[in-house]
Target: Trichome birefringence-like N-terminal domain-containing protein
Amino acid sequence: MKNPKHYSELPNGKKSTILLNFKKVFLPFLTLSLIISMSFYLNDYNNNESLLNDPEGSPSNSSILRPHAANERCNIFKGDWVMDPLRQPYYTNETKCVIDDRQNCMKFGRPDNEFLKWRWKPDECELPKFDAMQFLEIVRGKTLAFLGDSVGRNQMQSLVCMLASATYEAKDVSYVPDTRFRRWFYPDHNFTIEALWSPYLVKADEADSKGFSANSLMSLYLDEADETWSSQIQHVDIVIVSAGHWFFRPYYLYEKSRLIGCVMCNDKNITQLSVYNAYKMAFWTTFETLINNTNFKGLVFLRTFSPSHFENGDWNNGGNCARTKPFSKDEKKLDGYLLEMYMTQVREFKGAKKEGEKRGLDFRMMDTSEAMILRPDGHPNHYGHWPKDKAIADCVHWCMPGPVETWNEFLLQMLKREGEGINNGKILEEKS
Ligand SMILES: *[C@@H]1O[C@H](CO)[C@@H](O)[C@H](O)[C@H]1NC(C)=O
Ligand SMILES: *[C@@H]1O[C@H](CO)[C@@H](O)[C@H](O)[C@H]1NC(C)=O
Ligand SMILES: *[C@@H]1O[C@H](CO)[C@@H](O)[C@H](O)[C@H]1NC(C)=O
Ligand SMILES: *[C@@H]1O[C@H](CO)[C@@H](O)[C@H](O)[C@H]1NC(C)=O
Ligand SMILES: *[C@@H]1O[C@H](CO)[C@@H](O)[C@H](O)[C@H]1NC(C)=O
Model:
């Protein structure tokens, strides 16, 4: 396998000094990108009612968005966070599992713990607690891959900690030292979890003469899947695909190896395309690559866009996320750029689901966006992310422990449903 590229985990993860130098050189360009990313982070769009009423994409009225808790006709993704004062986190900062310092909010002194006491309550049923033993029985002999950026890995590490707290410890069987491609093995269950780090999902190269930085130019090849994952995918039984925040930075876009435009590149000679164009194509290519690969027989989950919650400024000029309580459903809706990103994914997902069916591949949507938009209190903020660099708050990833555990509660319920014969019980079949 090729050496993974050496850029940072997220575009908004770089030190401010780089940014300052950058400002001097590229001020006009920066202003443009700030306008775009300000609206990105501050959610200052409000008038998307028409999209909300679009039956094709409405989070609440699309049949593909309506998976059920096992045994129940209930949309587990529609609900609210309810206070449960007795709720304990699945694991602590002393559980034997890897918690990245950047998400280890307890270790770095986050003073409040109310954010650990909210549980997700679907409107029409209960979301059962995660049962590690049950989970491991379902995935016996399987490989589960988290394909995408570091927010996807956030879920993976949360899962590993949830299993570790129930005394199921994983062996590190990584084949490269780079932890973005970590592999965990559970010998008693012959179960493998692996991270396939690919923040754009498609082939991407650095394209900035000044080298990589928070806002440096990249080149995206929209019709070519990133080989770092596509060469590894054929043995995967369950893949959870996600991507998002890396698309909000400048890049050139290529199709059939020809430059077709750019995003935030400030070059008048090049067609300006929207983030959504790139995002749409990246998912389409990813899904098509899975469908085209006849050796791949896995179950595909799309984990929908994970919202960030910067307030009081942009990520790179003092924005933070200091709330200690969830929003109520009346206070906050999926809207603006978030809704647009979400809908872009949903559209590509629907197309892929249809195409996939033709060759017996199942696509499922892990529809976490609505739940997570309500959790501005769930991010590390200044507790974790480069703890020495207090200037930059992390309002993108999720504290561990924290609300990200809910994604794995969803995962278990979705897998249980597969196993119960609905959808032909594919997950329990041996690979042919
Ligand atoms: C929602 O879906 C139901 C059944 O699938 C349909 O009858 C109804 O018209 C839809 N509502 C909207 C607003 O599209
Ligand atoms: C774990 O978190 C507590 C605060 O909840 C903190 O006092 C302690 O130092 C942390 N321990 C480790 C090993 O990080
Ligand atoms: C473990 O699972 C793999 C498939 O992922 C299978 O090929 C292998 O035979 C299994 N090993 C045992 C000991 O069951
Ligand atoms: C744009 O194209 C014109 C005409 O081909 C050329 O003279 C100019 O240098 C180009 N500008 C940039 C920024 O590449
Ligand atoms: C998938 O296969 C079709 C038909 O051969 C081809 O046109 C398309 O480019 C392929 N897509 C990808 C992403 O490889």
Summary: Residues 336-358 form the longest helix (23 residues). The first strand starts at residue 79 and ends at 83.
